[in-house]
Amino acid sequence: MDWKAFIAETEGNINHLAKDIPTTLKGFGQMGVAAKSEGALSEKTKEFIALGIAIATRCDSCIGFHTRSLVKLGATMDELNEALAMASYMGGGPSIAYSAKAREAFEQFSA
What we know:
The chain is an all-alpha fold.
């Protein structure tokens, strides 16, 4: 999968949806800003949590968004692999398959 193209397409689709339900998307965006703000946990830690949930729920677009954010936040491949090991442990076989997708996305966004 071309993760950059996939996420660009997804963002385009979300932008179209935002025109139809702007209040909902604005509220979702505000919730994201609040949830990711620095506190007891760093934004990077919160993005790793979000990635684990994305893997568990098998959400390709969520995997793309959160791996891209992790790259921007300076996550390393070692950190990613440890998070993927935990997500795989918690979710079994399906999470291993989606962890592999997340690793591929991380490599592409890092390039």
